[in-house]
Amino acid sequence: MRLVWFTANAKGGVYQFAVKLHETALELGHESYLIAPDDSALHVKNGIPFKLSGHCAKVSEIRSLSRLIENLVPDFVMFADDPLTSLRVLNRINSRGRLKTMQFVHDVSPHTTNAGLRQVIRARATLYLREKAMERSAKIVLMSKNSLDEFKRRYNRHAYKGVLLPLGAHVLTEEAKCPPELGFDMTYLLFFGRIDKYKGIARLLRAWARCNHAGTKLLIAGGGTFSNEEKALIEASEDLSIINRFIDDEEMNYLIINACAVILPYADATQSGVIPISYHHGTCVIAADIPGLNEYVVDGVTGNLAASEDDLVSSMQGIIDHPDVADAMGANAHLYALERLDWAKNLSSLLCDANTERA
Question: 309-321 and 201-209 are packed helices; what angle lies between their axes, rounded to 10 degrees?
Answer without folding.
Answer: 60
